[in-house]
Structure formats: C-alpha cells, structure tokens
Amino acid sequence: MRIVEGAGAWRPAADGAANDWAEQLRTPDLSVGTYCIPAGGTDDQSPHTEDEIYVVTAGRATIVTPGATAEVGPGSVVFVPAGEEHRFTDVTEDLALLVVFGPAYGSRGSAAPSPE
C-alpha cells in the first residue's frame, strides 16, 4: 500500500510555465499525476497513447472533444480514450485535475508531451 501524497492538489506552475504537470506515482500498468491550469489559462496538451481518467479536485472549466463538450467542476470524472483529442477550455477557476493513465503514461511509446 502507498499513500500518494499531493495527488490532485492545486499548485501553480513554476518558472513562468503556463500549466503544471507532476507525476506522483508510476507502475508499469498505470501512472497518477496532477495537472493544474490557472483561471483564464490555456490547455495545450496533445492526445496521449494511453487511456486516461481525469478527476476534477478543484476549479471549473469545459472539456471539449470531437464528439462532446461538458462543463466540469469538483467531483467530475472524465474518461478520455487513448488518441482522442481533448482540451480544457473556459477555465473560470484554478483547475486541479487528478490524472490516471492506463497503462503508465508514455509506456505505449511515441507519447505526446505530458499534459503541461
């Protein structure tokens, strides 16, 4: 057993970066991290080679995919299949997302840049 410290907690980006991404846990089969976008910020991530689940722990935004658009806030859980375009827009409050990748982020090779 392991307690995953800091997972899902808001933290501002360091050194002038637009957003913050930190991986808190990695095993071959999954990885867990936190992705933070400040209010008014822009999500510039690309599709990933792994399935992912977002759990909104703080903030409000809209998630946009080719097939749907939805408003999200604390407690929202979003599944994005591998390879699907997706982006958080209209970030009205500092957004903190617990992100679970399965299998672990980048393990399928040719991964897009991490969500930062």
TrEMBL record:
Source organism superkingdom: Bacteria
Pfam families named among the record's database cross-references: Cupin_2 (PF07883)
UniProt domain Cupin type-2: residue ranges: 35-101
InterPro entries: Cupin_2 (IPR013096), RmlC-like_jellyroll (IPR014710), RmlC_Cupin_sf (IPR011051)
Name recorded for this polypeptide: Cupin domain-containing protein
Organism name: Actinomadura harenae
